[in-house]
Amino acid sequence: SSGINAEYGVVGEGYEDDITLDNVRGSSKQGTAFVEDNILESVTADIGAVHLNFGDCAINELHQMTFTLTNHSSTDPYRFSWTPVPNITFIPNTGHLHPRCSKDIIAEFKAGEPVSFQTMSVPCKVVKITFPQPLAQVADWDDRMRIIRWVSKKPRKSVCSTAEEERVASPS
Question: What's the rounded Cα separation, in Å, for the pair 33 and 36?
Answer without folding.
Answer: 10
